[in-house]
């Protein structure tokens, strides 16, 4: 963990994201690049203008540079190296160019704000970044303290487990030193044997060197309801999920929840974009390496 990207629209939530990124950077001796986009999708003054003139663009660029300098100056005492990047490209284009060509490790951003970073998970810039960024993304919805993240929930789709995602989760466990709660939500449509799923999944997780974990099976009317209830009832500090073009776990959280439901998720969300062409893991093929699985079944009422 050496290089972190932080998109900003100069809102309070963007500043919360920067403050959290600084905590991460201080702990792991990383640097931060603040990024803002002058693209009309991101900047409200351009988006709402009837006519976009060169004078308006120059005014917006000068204002962005001034706000960027003020923001960096406020956090200059942190001891973390912070630089800036302003472009008229779309936000996701900027981020992926930086990630691909300059080897950034992580994006940290707010889930709502005064401009393009708003309405998280509803077609916004944040949702696009979550689905398309070429490195892990941490999305926060308010002030977040690194040392207060102790338990992370990882929803598992047993029909769509990819090794790349589990490897990233293993790296995250080592990075943040957290307890991992792997959760499979069983609905009325699932006919799999619970004990076998628990045993095989636990063996797979442990084979990657992940030690501080538990595996839980939650019964619920739908994956999304089970996940959100688990977060609330178990006092989860962060959710970690895989995404690839609104499939699997991402579809549960990005594609099927109403805005009202999503607004109840106040914990940070760590996401990783999987390669849709990557081979899925067949749980039956996992070599047996542990005798006892960490199996817990939590009954959830079906509404």
From TrEMBL:
Residues 1-138, 209-270 form the UspA domain. CDD domains: USP-like. It comes from the Bacteria. InterPro entries: Rossmann-like_a/b/a_fold (IPR014729), Universal_stress_UspA (IPR006015), UspA (IPR006016). Transmembrane segments: none annotated. It holds the Pfam family Usp. PANTHER family: STRESS RESPONSE PROTEIN NHAX, UNIVERSAL STRESS PROTEIN UP12. Belongs to the universal stress protein A family. This is Nucleotide-binding universal stress protein, UspA family.
